[in-house]
Give the backbone structure.
Amino acid sequence: MSLATSGMGGAGAGMGMSAMAHGGPSAMSTHQQASSGNQAGPPPGTTAPPPNMASMAADLIDKNQNLGWKMIKNLAAMPIVGIDLYGDTGEVAYYPPVTDNELDQGNILVKGLGKVSATGTSLVLKKDSDAAHKALRRLITKSKGYEAVFNDTLSDDNGKRSNGNDAVIVESPHLLLGERQTKYLHNATDGKYTIGKESSHAIDEDDSKGMTIRNGNLDGSTEALGNDFDRVTIHLNMHSAKKTLTILPEEAVGIVLAKAKSQVAKAFPELKDEDDPEKYVEFPTAIALPAWGCNHYAIEALMDACDGNAVLYNRSVAALTGAFIPKFVTTKEGEQGLQPPKLYTTVMECYQNQQTKIEEAQKRKEPLPNTSYTPLVVMAGMTELGVELTAIQIKTPNASFGRGNAHCPFGEFSVVSTVAYQHSKPVSVVNKALVELSDIVDEICPELEDDGGVVAVVTYGTIAKQLQLKDALLKSLNGIKGDDVWNTKMAFMSTHEDIVALGTSVLAGVSHNRMSPEAVDEGKASRPPVLVKNVAPCAVGVTYSFESGKDGTWTEPKVIF
């Protein structure tokens, strides 16, 4: 699926395209649901990135992800770093390198490493430290020196020293990726930062706050120029006796990603390069995005932060993939093997029950139940800044699961619909999101009532957020009367906090061809262990201004796709 679109804006008779995406052949664009939030005006003009900037499929060789055989071969000796960048804690996992030309042969290879740091995906910088200021300035000017930043600049005290005296906090810099001007920030994002005054001077010492965001431009200007090179920049007053440092959100996110890669590098000491101790920055990256974060300018900036060396996936699909990873257990008798998760057992029971119904109907010569039955689950995720509900059909059980394949029990995930909202109080829009999702699913899958309804609602995120989300969903379901599908009898399943990072790493392992293909047609052909069919998570809309783009003169967006 491609999320590449163009937006236009400017003076005179302006036309703006709001944050958007379009689906490819596998996208059910008529069923898309999303919200780009309340904005003061349309995003300024942007140039569309190539389609590979936003691919979210997990194909064997997915050209939309810019992965070719040559790149896969060159990266095979490096681990793939999966990070839940948009999660509240920034969990990290990895898929190991290919060794001795052997692919996944029945072992669980993906592994979680915990949080990227004690401060998650936020950066806590030491204040009034000469070494801290020098290390960060060197990284900005020379694009190297991550180890010095880790040791001298970053503080892992989880913000305890963030009272303004000892530390400067850059909170969730990924939320600012690709943003052109501060006035276009989403309300939920705007409230997290202090917006500094715009200045036409190159040097502005008036920084009463340790960290502010301001308008800037890629040509070095310190004010917005109304062109495609406008960017929101981060200003850091780290030292009372030194000049303020200015960095782009991509550079801040790059530090977070480098920190994750350095953690993974410790698991592979044999890959350490004495001549280049920061060789780990070349490790391929895999990141999952929530639907509300899938706009083309953010994705383009994210790829820049990854030096173009990343694969991107839908966060709900990554969570579902991670929820199916089995455990390696040892019984009391000393026998070792894989223990499938509860979700896998539940889905397989649904398949078996449906097959039993078909066989019984055949014996009685009665009309057959749905012979194309496909279990459907609802993935529900919530973070501090957004909520996402996604209905996904699970198809094609893999015959090799538990033997040659230890990661992917099913061969296809087909997204029916996703409803997502970025919001400063996401729990307040859970009911709205559920109502929208249920209406869409009922329209697309009318057979769901006869097929036994939704298999399960699977929550993901931090444990606290999962509990809060479950309570909100049950409260909404309790208000629905006489519905055989959407009611409080729906099964709820929780997941570990690192499930998105693990699932992202598995999907990346598929994209990088590190898993054995699944044989079909009695071995005459093969396919990837899992294929993902997505929907476009954003709508395309047009808004007009005939008064030089002044605030308050833009029309309401008209959705055209």
Observations:
- The two ends are 15 Å apart (CA to CA).
